[in-house]
Design brief:
- The structure is a single chain.
- This protein is of the alpha/beta class.
- It has two domains: 5-98 and 286-303, NAD(P)-binding Rossmann-like Domain (Rossmann fold, 3-Layer(aba) Sandwich), CATH 3.40.50; 101-276, Rossmann fold (3-Layer(aba) Sandwich).
- Helices cover 35% and strands 16% of the residues.
- It has eleven helices and twelve strands.
- It has helices at 14-23, 35-42, 59-64, 83-88, 101-116, 119-127, 154-165, 189-195, 215-221, 238-247, 285-303; strands spanning 5-8, 25-28, 48-52, 70-74, 92-94, 146-150, 169-173, 184-186, 198-201, 226-229, 252-255, 274-276.
- It has a seven-stranded parallel β-sheet with strand order 8-7-6-9-10-11-12.
- α1 runs parallel beside α11 (285-303) and α5 packs across α7 (154-165).
- 39% of the residues are buried.
- Bound molecules: 2-keto-D-gluconic acid.
- The site of 2-keto-D-gluconic acid (8YV) has 11 residues, from loops.
């Protein structure tokens, strides 16, 4: 029996690329010299696409794939993909939730420690030979500090657990209170920001959350407050963030994500009160392999006529 055809929209994890090659006839649209010709040739045969949540599925692509029924995306976030447009065409989206919770939460705590304990600056103190002339200055710490989590979802809950293990006072904001969770709920984000030392942003990027961490929220955090973003850059008003970090209106920031990745506002590079990461939340060997495996399992289930493993609710 001939293998099913699938289309890939971008470079995928090497393990996933290798697995797909053994099971399917893979057509990499992103490598095609003439994408329109490729779509014209194979479009009607494509029932499934493998992609990542950063790559859109524009209407003209969907138009060229009349029999598409599954978009299997690598990553938990799928903000570039228009889910209602897929649903309207009877296409289901799958993502890769849960398997990256630990890695993202671990990076969150790592950046918070690095910022609180000023690890990059203290490291420089040693490397630049300044230690013999004097000890590095005293720093703040996580233990005992107050943290507010914006988005107590799968990853947010894991972040909350780790913060609690550091004996931090944990609160959260989201659309709804979660009575089964032991943390304090704030219905109002500005109010929460005014009551905490740290604001961790880990909500999905949706039309309702874009720009949610605005100037008022950042000003409520204030000169000793710190914001951590491991979600999407566009949840925070980035120009206001840069301005407040520069002026001292906000104490610090630990940022794994940015509005225009991989471009980072250059004004951040010289700020001592900032930790910068190149979108590394899930970027460990183990986690990325687990994500790759989940994409492969969704495709496998789809072609076997089985229930999808991790469908995104329509
Ligand atoms: C990855 C992510 O950067 O899962 C997500 O939503 O942002 C990260 O895990 C990305 O998905 C890899 O393409």
């Amino acid at each position: 029996m001939s293998q099913p055809d699938i289309l890939t929209l971008g470079r995928l994890h090497p393990d996933l690329t290798a697995t797909l090659a053994t099971r399917y006839t893979v057509h990499p649209l992103w490598q095609a010299d003439d994408p329109a010709a490729l779509l014209a040739a194979v479009g009607p045969r494509i029932r499934a696409v493998a992609t990542t949540g950063h790559i859109p599925c524009p209407p003209e692509l969907l138009e060229a794939l009349p029999n598409l029924r599954l978009v299997a995306s690598f990553g938990v976030g799928y903000d570039a993909i228009d889910v209602p447009a897929l649903t309207a065409r009877g296409i289901t989206l799958t993502n890769t939730p849960d398997v990256l919770n630990d890695a993202v939460a671990e990076l969150t705590i790592g950046m918070m420690i690095a910022l609180a304990r000023e690890m990059p600056l203290a490291d420089r103190h040693v490397r630049e030979g300044r230690w013999p002339a004097g000890n590095y200055r005293l720093t703040s710490q996580l233990t005992g500090a107050r943290v507010g989590i914006l988005g107590l979802g799968r990853i947010g809950r894991r972040v909350a657990e780790l913060c609690a293990a550091f004996r931090m006072d944990v609160a959260y904001h989201g659309r709804h209170a979660q009575p089964d969770q032991p943390y304090r709920y704030y219905a109002d984000l500005v109010e929460m920001a005014g009551a905490v030392d740290w604001l961790v942003v880990i909500a999905p990027s949706t039309p309702a959350t874009v720009g949610m961490v605005d100037r008022r929220v950042l000003e409520a955090l204030g000169p000793t407050g710190r914001v951590v973003n491991v979600a999407r850059g566009n949840l925070i008003d980035e120009p206001a963030l840069v301005e407040l970090l520069t002026s001292g209106g906000l104490g610090g920031a630990a940022l794994d994500v940015f509005v225009d990745e991989p471009h980072v506002p250059a004004a951040l590079f010289d700020l001592p009160n900032v930790i910068l990461q190149p979108h590394q939340g899930s970027a460990t060997h183990i986690t990325r392999r687990a994500m790759a495996d989940l994409v492969a399992r969704n495709l496998e289930a789809f072609f076997a006529g089985q229930p999808l493993v991790t469908p995104v609710p329509a």
